[in-house]
Amino acid sequence: MDHFSSRTWLVLIFLPTLSGCIGFGVVYPKDSIPIERPYIGDEKGSYFPGFSGLKGYTCSELEARWGEPNLRSTDGKKTTLVYKSGRVWAGILPMVGVVIPLVLPVSRKQSTFVCEDNVLLRASGTVSGYAGAYCVLYFGCYGSGEFGDW
What we know:
Structural class: mainly beta
Helix content: 10-25%
Oligomer: single chain
């Protein structure tokens, strides 16, 4: 019985070395940094920092491109448009040879735009963030920190 037990432990200890990777990741909801005068992509939910040479967008152009928002609120001259698409995930991603995703959807991705006098001023959103660390047993450890959106 002791022989079987020690063989099992050896297999479990050296199993991660087959791929050379061991580590973990955490997926969590996060708010993106607000972007002033964004460039609007064709797909709902895609926007990027604008460049100084690009013309600004209007709320009317945004609605023509993405359709009616899920939520609209007006406060004097300011209008806020909220578009929802996709899912925001939360959970952990342990890695022992392969990634084991233990994540669940917790809400929907959200893009929020603020306009004043029909001029698009600012965009922000809620997305899934990812942070973690992993080791490649043959070459050392990598990561540790935030890796971007998931």
